[in-house]
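QA checklist item 7 of 12: single-chain prediction sanity check.
[x] sequence parsed
[x] length recorded as 308
[x] structure emitted
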Amino acid sequence: MVPAPATKTHSAAPGASALPPDAVVLVTGANSGIGFEAARVLAMQGARVSLACRNETAAREAAAKIADQGPAHEPQVYALDLARLDSVRDCAQRFADGHPHLDLLINNAGVMIPPFGRTREGFELQMGVNHLGHFALTARLFPLLQRAPGARVVTVSSLAHRFGRIDFDDPHWERRKYKRSAAYGASKLANLLFAFEFDRRLRRAGSPIISAAAHPGWTSTRLMRHVSLISFFSALLAMKTSRGALPTLYAATHPGVQSGDYIGPDKLWGIRGNPGPSSASADARDSDLAARLWELSEALTRTPFVIA
């Protein structure tokens, strides 16, 4: 478990972990950045970690770097392109074929403010990769999560969710002039809406599965390569990846984390600091908005996600 200060809502002693020995873990986008660091730390703590990534070559190189550090279990690699729903389906099936259960799913992969693009199904790229792909993946892996006592799903969002707005009449920017920063904010808002709605539905069903969310504050990663101004200030203000991964690891392992929690850095309005409770926008907490997005996500991905 990653050391973190105790708080009123997370009072378990630092160093404790909610994960069972030999926990089965799947981390998306784990070939670099926060995903790699989370996978590395969890592997070194004894978890059976799998890296689910679009670039298989980079993923195998990342897995080799982790293996060189001598974890108890060598990491596995699964091909996963979140911009293709057939890849999401195939990844989930291959993982299920090799694992009877799943203790921890970290929905980490994402794209940030790239040039305009679309997924294979025609979704706007950032919404398609950051939210819809993960929605479909979580739905398909849900039976494995149900077989693991105390399973967790951690969905990685961003401070940018506060600037997001989801246009249900034009979710894929077919009629509006494209604004990539606005599209990114919408995708990160969708991440939080999903995590919180997942929690509500789990609670209504009486499920012990935990749905938590996290954000890394301002962390220097390859995601920022498309925005030169952000890259410039990152050199001055951003945390290192090892620090930026702490909220994800805290949400994934700390015994005090409850379903529906949102974890992020605790200083400078969430930009830096140690992991602790983070605040979400009013839109992110809107249950009607979340239910509407859930229904739209099921329809767009053609993936029923019923929790019973």
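[x] summary fact logged: Residues 220 and 235 are 8 Å apart (CA to CA).
[ ] second reviewer sign-off
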